[in-house]
Amino acid sequence: MKIRDYREEDQASWLRCRVLSFMDSSYFDDVQRDREKYDNPVIQIVAVDHNGVVGFLDCEYEEKQGDVCYFKGDRGGVIWHMGVLPDYRGQGLATAMWHAAKKRLKENHVHRVEVWTQDDLEATRWYLKQGFVFKEAYLNAYLKGSLGDPTLKKFLNLQDCGDIFGIRSLNFEAPIERKEELADICYRLHEVRVYEAEL
C-alpha cells in the first residue's frame, strides 16, 4: 500500500474508487464521470495498491482568504472529496492520507480546513477523532409526488411549470430548524454538516 500524489493516469481508477466508496453512504447517488477541476491550488492524495486507487483525498486551498472557505478567518482549505473502498477501511488509510495532506497544507501556510459531510456516522466519528469541530448544519431534502399532491403544491408553483406529468424528485436545501416538519414528508432527509479543524 502506498500513499502518494494523484496522477493523471489514476483518473479511471479514482472515479471507480469514488463511486464504490460512496455506495454505502448518503452520497450514494453523487456519481461523477469526470475528475473535478479546481480554481485554486489543490492537494490530491491517493492510497494505491496493485488494484489501483483504493482511497482518495482532495483538499483545495486558498491563495487569498475567502477564495475557497465558507467561514472567514485565517487562510484555509476545504476537503471536497475523501473516501476509502469498503474492503480497505479500518487500516488507517484515511488517517494516513489526511496526515500527508495536512503536512502539505502547513507547508503552504494554510491554517485551517473545513469539510462538508452529511449525517454518515462513521465519517462523522472519523472527522471528530481528527480534531474537526462541528460548526453548523442545514438540511438536504428530497420530496416526490403527483401533481395533485397537496404537499408538493406547498413547495412548487405548478402553474408556472407548463405541461408536465409529475415530479420524480425535488431536491432542495432548508434550514436545520425545519427538520421535524420535513421528516414527515420527505423520502430522504440528510443533515449537511460543516466541520473545521485548525492546523
Describe the structure.
The chain is an alpha+beta fold and 199 residues long. The chain folds into two domains: 2-132, 3-Layer(aba) Sandwich (Aminopeptidase); 138-192, no CATH class. The protein is 24% helix and 36% strand. The chain contains five helices and eight strands, in the order βαβββαβαβαβαβ. The chain has an eight-stranded mixed sheet, sandwiched between helices. The radius of gyration is 19 Å and the shape is globular.
Strand order of the largest sheet: 1-2-3-4-5-8-6-7
Helix content: 10-25%
CATH superfamily grouping of the largest domain: Gcn5-related N-acetyltransferase (GNAT)
CA radius of gyration: 19 Å
CATH-defined topology of the largest domain: Aminopeptidase
Indicate the mean pLDDT: 93
Find the count of extended strands (DSSP E, 2+ residues): 8
Number of helices: 5
Distance between the termini: 26 Å
Defining key terms:
single chain, alpha+beta, Aminopeptidase, 2 domains, 8-stranded mixed beta sheet, 8 strands, globular, Acyl_CoA_acyltransferase, acyltransferase, GNAT_dom, ribonucleoprotein, Ribosomal protein S18 acetylase RimI
Short overview:
With 199 residues, the protein is α+β, with helices and mostly antiparallel strands. It contains five helices and eight strands.
List the SSEs and their pairings.
Layout: E1 2-5, H1 11-22, E2 42-49, E3 52-61, E4 76-84, H2 93-107, E5 112-117, H3 121-129, E6 133-146, H4 150-155, E7 166-175, H5 179-183, E8 188-198
Parallel strand pairs: 4-5
Antiparallel strand pairs: 1-2, 2-3, 3-4, 5-8, 6-7, 6-8
GO molecular function: acyltransferase activity, transferring groups other than amino-acyl groups
Protein name: Ribosomal protein S18 acetylase RimI
InterPro entries: Acyl_CoA_acyltransferase (IPR016181), GNAT_dom (IPR000182), YpeA/RimI_acetyltransf (IPR050680)
